[in-house]
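Quick illustration, no need to memorize.
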Amino acid sequence: MLHYADYQQLLTILSLFLSLTLLLISGEFSIINSTFALSNDNSPNEEDNKCISYNKLEKIITVGCVGVSRISGNIHLTDIHNKLQDRNILDKQQDGVWLLNAGIVVEKGATLMLDPQDTTWLKIIADGINAYPITILGSLKVDSVKVTSWNPQTNNYAVSKGNRDFNDEAGKYNVVPGFPRPYIIIESGAAGTTNITNSEVAYLGYEAGLGEGKTGLTYLGGDNSILSNNKIHDLYFALYSSGVGGMIIENNHVYNNGHYGLDPHTGTHDMIIRNNTVHDNGAIGIICSLNCSNIIIENNKAYNNDRIGIMLSRNVQNSVVRNNIVYNETQCIFASQSHNNQIYNNIVNSCKNGIRLFHNTTANTIHDNTISNSVRGIFVDNGATKNAIYSNTISNNSTSPSSRSNNDSNKAIVVDETAKDNTIRDNKVAKY
């Protein structure tokens, strides 16, 4: 039986135990609440700030993680501006205009957004010495903005007059370097897409030498990217790609570019090029060259390009050129060293050669095209073999203004003696 003193001591111990228990419970809730608050804190922290860095020596901004704003997961120019706090690198001007005096590298896992949230026009400095690139290893999204070079000395766009011309006798290009201008390049192995939509991309890229990738808008990676509803003009190449698959290029206005318009190149595959207007470019409007496959070129309009409207070149296979309108070119549609392609339902007008099959081009099908006012309607030469040419409608105006050689007589279908085993049937020829 407990004595009074023992009873009092037991009550004291129980009271202390109860107090400690309440303190522990209270502390646990505090920790839980604190943890919950941290997990729901959307404000930038020090770790986020490390996502954006600047290399002063190389003048390169690097965006290296999933974004300053954990709400959106994307990085805008405002985020870079707030981090760097240097108007000599990135200057925010009025009405959503930014002046960028550095290159930007977007690393894997990061996405750079150029959109009306904070941007109407990105001007990238071209000072005659440096050519600042936007280099994409992650993702780039451009929507409803303008991206151009800017020359502070002239207070206008930067103009570059370099060029490359193929010397047939020497078997190589003669290259004249151009004024350095900014450019956009999506690197091989880029982890995301680069989608450019509803925008204007202009006065970028320059002749820096073959294979330099500084021509304007270059996709070496970024499978399944979209280029849609843009004005793309006064670049050196409007678009160059290599090894890229699944791209859609549609509803763009591509004009006044220094060399090629749309140039999917080495190993490009499964690309759709449709509903574009491509004109007044310095060489070829639309060309796929060197081991391209499964390319669809449809419903485009190509005219007034310096050399060729649409071309398949050097082992383009299993591709389709259909429902295009091509006119006022030296060669309207030209296939060289390419095989197992279809060219049909195109309207071709006022070219030296309406459709030409050249240089060992084999097993292509050419049918239901309408060709008019050209020096030669269809020209098959230089070893082109086993092609099927049928159901085309060919008519001609002997005073065609596009005739560029006084030695050519107007002919509907011309087959060179080196071209063997071609099937030519059921073509309609009028007014020759």
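Residues 20-46, 66-72, 398-409 have pLDDT under 50 and may be disordered.
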